[in-house]
Amino acid sequence: MRTGLFNLVQIKPVPVDGHLLRLDISAEEAKSKEFGFSIGYGTYEGGIAGVQYRDRDLFGYGRPLTTSIGVSERGYSGEVLYEDPFFFDTDFSFKARLAAFTFRFDGYTKFELGGRLELTRKITKYDEAGMTFAVRHVKIIDAEIKPIFLGDQDYFVNTLGFTNTVDMRESPFVTPRGFLINNTLDLASSAFGSDIEFIRGTMRVGYYLPFGPKPLTPGVVEDKPGTPWQRWFQQSSIAFGARAGLIHSLTVSGPAEATAIPIDERFFIGGSDTVRSFGYRDLGPHDPKGHPIGGEFFTVFNVEYTFPIFGELQGALFTDAGNLLPTSEEPSLDDMRYAVGVGLRYKLPVGPIRLDYGVNPDPRADEDSGAFHFSFGFAF
Q: CA separation (Å) from 340 to 37, 183, 315, 318?
């Protein structure tokens, strides 16, 4: 059913001799081709629109092929994605992606063309490991930032990567409950034909705790007696998140290492899913004109409490903390920045629509006292 190839699958057990059951299976095939469009708005991207064509049953083998085009106020993108959930009839899942896009960040505009191959396998019910290989051509086509802060502006970067995800959450799109741990490691090397060489790693940990009782059936909430306060509390939840990342040049060390990594490969934080008292990518090092230039080491910590207001509308109280350092030579928790804030959530079957305002408790001379964020999905 997860493939989308069937509208209906029925399994009827019929007792036969001894302790045997015969399973009578009937299925109704779904339409394999689908066309759709989307429209939206993001605080940073502005207006967003897209079209998508998907064939779930390419050549009659149940392998999906998706073509999509997107346009926003900051750029445009195109992507072709091929998926094989049972690669060569094994337990491995395979994805091949080809994409091209142009995007205007604060201070520079880039064009990127590349492809990515991804092979993953479930180790256990909750643990998934994967290997990726990506080939990308990145070109800075317009910049207000001086070249000394940009690094390379026209390069190929080819990376071999490894991922591991332990996802023990229940109902991850509606009311998550449980742990999520994700780790990635990427290596860019001239051995793969890359113009730049680095090693990059990230780590993410999340814990989600609804205060209501664990449902006996996923997605079904049992109506339990109690006072209005008790029922209200059982619809509340708290979530904790922590993330960190490091990228390090394999060819340059010392003071020059801070700009050896091109600007588009560095980390940026600030925005709706990191430290919400800052605008998108606005926390951390800036050039003399005030444009963010990213860094090589970051940490982000989040705590969020959500509570019901009316129907599917929820309120939220949160606090965030994080830092972004220009070089990975001395990673630390120095220069931490903070956010405290409130937000609204409207729950949908595929995730919440979010409106947040984060307050900067200690703004510096060139910083705002807070920031609004309008976005979709969970913050972390």
A: 36, 27, 14, 6
- Tokens 């034909």 correspond to 193
Domains and CATH numbers, the chain: 1-30 (no CATH), 85-376 (2.40.160.50)
Flag whether the pTM goes above 0.85.
yes
Q: At a CB cut-off of 8 Å and minimum separation 6, what does 310 contact? A: none
| pLDDT at residue number 260 | 86
- Please state, in angstroms and rounded to a whole number, the distance separating the CA atoms of residues 46 and 4: 32
Average pLDDT for consecutive 10-residue bins of the chain (380 residues)? 86 89 93 94 94 93 95 98 93 97 97 98 96 98 96 97 96 88 98 96 97 69 72 93 97 74 97 97 96 97 97 96 94 96 93 96 93 93
Q: Round to whole Å and give the CA distance between 364 and 338.
A: 12
